[in-house]
Amino acid sequence: MTIAPRLVVGAAVLDSLTQPRSLLCARRSAPESLAGLWEFPGGKVEPGEEPEAALHRELREELGISVELGPEVLSGADHGWVLNEKATMRVWLAEVSEGAPQALEDHDELRWVPLEEGALHALPWIPADFPIVDAVLRRANGS
């Protein structure tokens, strides 16, 4: 029997959905194996929860913000982006609609980074997030 991978949701929080110039990046504080690496904020979808609802819940818990969701950043696979053998992630573009992002849970630093390959690739991302960073760059830059 094959166990389905755990679904995780993430947000590529932009300064603007219509004219994006920067991306909110979050640095993990735990677990130890991921501490100090950067990621898209978000988290696990609970049983019976819709992915978009989970993302809104996670962003309130982790960053203290409400967001307007934009389009999903598609991976080309039905299940989303493969993180590891146990988890896949779906990612949406988003813009803060209420609140100011704060590192409340799971992160020790938040940083607005210009939507430029050099600036984003300079951060030590969780390795599975690099293809998503590239897809967000393409999507945000209209290609």
Describe this structure in words.
This protein has about 140 residues and is α+β, with helices and mostly antiparallel strands. The protein has three helices and eight strands, in the order ββββαββββαα. It has helices at about 50-65, 115-120, 130-140, and strands at about 5-15, 20-30, 40, 40-45, 65-75, 80-85, 85-100, 105-115. Strands 1, 4, 5, 6 and 7 form a five-stranded mixed β-sheet that branches. It has a three-stranded antiparallel β-sheet with strand order 3-2-8, with no helix packed on it. The longest helix is centred in the middle third of the chain and has 13 residues, at about 50-65.
- The number of helical runs is 3
Low-confidence segments: none
Helix content: 10-25%
Structural class designation:
alpha+beta
Q: What is the rounded Rg?
A: 14 Å
Distance between the termini: 40 Å
- β-strand number: 8
Shape: globular
Task: Describe the protein's topology.
Blueprint: E1 6-14, E2 22-28, E3 38-39, E4 42-44, H1 51-63, E5 66-73, E6 81-84, E7 87-98, E8 107-114, H2 117-121, H3 130-140
Parallel strand pairs: 1-7
Antiparallel strand pairs: 1-4, 2-3, 2-8, 5-7, 6-7
